Amino acid sequence: MQHNLHHRFDPNLYSHLPPHQQPLPDDTTWTPPPSTLGFAWGSTQTSYDTPPRVESTGGGVGPMYALLGETRGRGRHPFDLQLSPTATMDVSRTVLVQRSGQGGGASTQTMHASVLDDGVSMHRPNHMSRLALSQAAPAGSVPCRQPAAGAAMQDQRADVGGVAESPRCVECIVCRFNSLRATSEGDGAGAAMQERRLDLCGVAESARCVERIVCRYNSSRPTGDGDVGGREGGASKPDHVDVEDDDADDEDEDEAPVKEAVSGRTKKQPSKVRGKAKGKDKEGDTNDEGGGSGARGNWSLNESLVLVQCKRDQDDYFANAGTNFSRMKTKDQKWMDIAKRMEKEGVRRDGEQCMKRWENIFRWYRKVWDREKDSGLQSYFLMTTKARKEKGYKFNLDRTLYDAIHIMQGNNQAVHPLNLVDTGNAQGQQSQQGEQSQAAAGGGEADTSASENRGADTGDGCGRRSSSNDIQGKRKNARQLAFEAVTDVMKTHSTVVAESVDRASKRQCDVLQRQCDIMEREARTQERQCEVLNVGQRMLCEALLKIVGNSEIARGGHRGVVVTEVDIGHRNCVGVRRCESMDIQMALRGRVLGRTITFYEMRHRQGEKDGRLFDFVGEVTGQEVGHYEVDANGDTILNVVVALGYVDDMLREVVGYTTKVGRAIPDRWEGGVDVLDDIVDLLMSNIANEHDDLMTVPADFRVWPDPPLHDRPGLRGEIRNIDE
DNA sequence: CCGGTGTCGCTTACTCGACA
DNA sequence: TGTCGAGTAAGCGACACCGG
Q1: Are A664 and A623 in contact (CB under 8 A)?
Q2: Considering only Cβ atoms within 10 Å of each terminal Cβ, which end of chain A, N or C, has fewer?
Q3: How many CA atoms lie within 13 A of A296 on its CB side?
Q4: Is the CB of residue A86 inside 7 Å of nucleic acid strand B?
């Protein structure tokens, strides 16, 4: 082993500070304050100024020192007698042994727990601080060193304040330890013991064992024990000598008898390691400490409370230390620190035990918390043991302990998770909104448990599982969050696209609908236009026909113009405006038996008798012959020639002849309405109408049917207007 | 990608008290 | 005295996160 000339961390320097302000012990870069400083840095100032001791195994040392010194087969003596733990970086443990037989004064020996032993430089804030209490008179420490004790003691830091109180007691413990070891191994405390130690992992191990004895001694000092007897018969807890080793793998054989001997327990030794044990056996060293509750080292409530308090102190410390300060410490270092804090409080547990105990009680707390925070459920603390077991709470968590943990979990995301994945519970928490508040609250990085996550989680929202009883689901991890974010984006994108497409479709539909409407209106318009056009064309056609007709009339055709139409029951009489200049003009139109009967007067044949005899029976003095073509629905059915006989310009008698054209008119009258009679009546009525005041009373008519028409009664009679 | 860390669930082994 | 169940420390692996 080499002397480390750099100074190592000394927790005593910070013993006056609250725990959260004390640096961790493994700050190898820690630099001691200048020696010129006064005692403001504590009584250890002198230790820095003290030159390293010269290693020596000179005689004159006490039995323990000689023993351990001889076991040092190589390198330095395990007792690197540098009293002050701050003397060198190598020093981590101090053993104060009264060497009563030498000089009569109290002498101190500082045991060097070699760093090389386990690679971990142990320091014990607990006993260190207690030693510090004894350092109130550092000036007196130096004289207390015994030069006669050998050169090995020359660089001791005489922590005589503590040593002077009961050095004898410590030595007795050490001696007892050795005797116990010798007894248990059936060996003496001499060279065999040394070899035994060499067979193990080195003398440092035994040195550490001794150191722990001293630690226990120091821890028990406040109890007022002044001698061995007091310890043996006094408080039972200090009576148990802690022989735990951090590297317990190498000390199984050593510690077993010690445990049994010093614990005073009758419990059988475990025949095999616990569970999937790695061979460790920590029972002995955990017994009785701080009110241990069992031979197997069950944690008492007080111990657990101390653990929680120390954990909280460390959390505060890390929270105040800086963002990543906690990450500069390994897990073991952190738990060792907690163990030391607990040791300060009088609870002797190693870091691993603390870690496991914390895991367990925190796990219980989480389960209870998951229940307590749900309103409506019966409180865990009000449940019977049976009910607890039925509910899966197969543990017994004290309310005090629960409260103690609960106080420190205000910002613990493991307890108050931010992002949860609902794994089945409808009340799955999705407290995304909590991130902001958490981010605001998470000023530091409280390293404990999930509180350490706070700083990180506030950044990315990642977290850990929140529940141990599957009530709330799991915390979302980064992948889940990223996936959800992508999913949200995709969902939003899909929604936007769908809405856009929908809007576009609707717009397109609207456009198409409008186009359809327009086309329909256009169609209707075109229909109306067609109708109008048809009407116009029809009118045009009619007009053209009329024009053509007129043109025909003008060219000598035989069509006229309808002026009036008179309904005469089954016969209609239509007044005609005559056109004097035309040869053929419509003289009369009427309806007979539903047919339109039209009389066209052949004016160009006016006066022609066609060889017929018009025998007027009266004193007729003048005659006027007229020719008519009778059409029924456009078909010529009859030709009529009549002669108007006048007496003094007064119509007196009409004689006429009818000639059948076609087959529309029956040859003979069979009874009922006679078409021929009606046609003749229609003509006579028209003549009567034309001669209104120029007709004698009575004025008769006689019409002779040409064969094949037979005569009938209706062909003769008085001329009269049928409208009357 | 890897190591360290914190958390959690599950398991194992042990202790201890109750009970036959 | 042996058995059994409860309680629990402890081991172990998985998981997730962070930082290098």
Answers
A1: no
A2: C
A3: 6
A4: no
Residue A416 Cβ under 7 A from any strand B atom: no
| pLDDT band of A329, cuts 50, 70, 90 | low
Contact A413, A434 (CB under 8 A): no
| Averaged pLDDT, A277-292 | 35
Determine the nucleotide nearest to A354 by Cα–C1' distance. C9
- A44 touches A135 (CB < 8 A): yes
- Rounded Cα distance, A97 and A167, in Å: 5
Instruction: Assess contact for A609 and A635: CB atoms under 8 A.
Output: no
The closest alpha carbon to A345, from A289, A284, A285, belongs to: A289
What are A438's two structure tokens? Answer: 């958490």
Confidence of residue A657 (pLDDT cuts 50, 70, 90): very high
- Residue A15 has a pLDDT of 54
Task: Summarize pLDDT for A461-511 with one digit per residue, the tens.
Answer: 333 333 333 333 334 444 455 555 556 666 777 787 788 878 888 888 788
Domain boundaries, chain A: 11-265, 320-476, 479-555, 566-718
Q: What are phi and psi of A660, to 5 degrees?
A: -75, 135
Q: Report how far apart the first and last C-alpha atoms of chain A are (Å, whole number).
A: 161
The span from the CA of A198 to the CA of A178, in Å, is: 15
pTM of full prediction above 0.85: no
Specify the 3-state DSSP secondary structure of A588.
strand
- At residue A349, the 3 state secondary structure works out as coil
Of A394-403, A514-523, A601-610, A688-697, least confident by mean pLDDT is A394-403
A95, A214 in Cβ contact below 8 A?
A: yes
C-alpha count within 13 angstroms, C-beta hemisphere, residue A238: 26
Q: Which residue is nearest to nucleotide C11 (CA to C1')?
A: A276
- Cα distance between residue A556 and residue A558, in whole Å: 7
Other C-beta atoms lying within 10 Å of the C-beta of residue A184: 17
Listed as ranges, the nucleotides of chain C within 7 A of a protein C-beta are: 6-12, 15-20
List bases in chain B with any atom under 7 Å of a protein Cβ.
Answer: 4-9, 11-16
* Pick from A208, A271, A278, A274: nearest CA to A249: A278
pLDDT in tens, A555-584: 333 334 433 343 333 444 444 444 445 677
Q: Is the pLDDT of residue A106 over 70?
A: no
Cβ < 7 Å from strand B, A residues 238-297:
267-277, 283, 294-296
| DSSP secondary structure letter of residue A606 | T
Do residues A254 and A213 make contact, with C-beta atoms less than 8 angstroms apart? no
Q: Is A275 helix (H, G, I), strand (E, B) or coil?
A: coil
Among A65-69, A430-434, A648-652, the range of highest mean pLDDT: A648-652
Give the distance, in angstroms, between residue A467 CA and nucleotide B8 C1'. Answer: 9
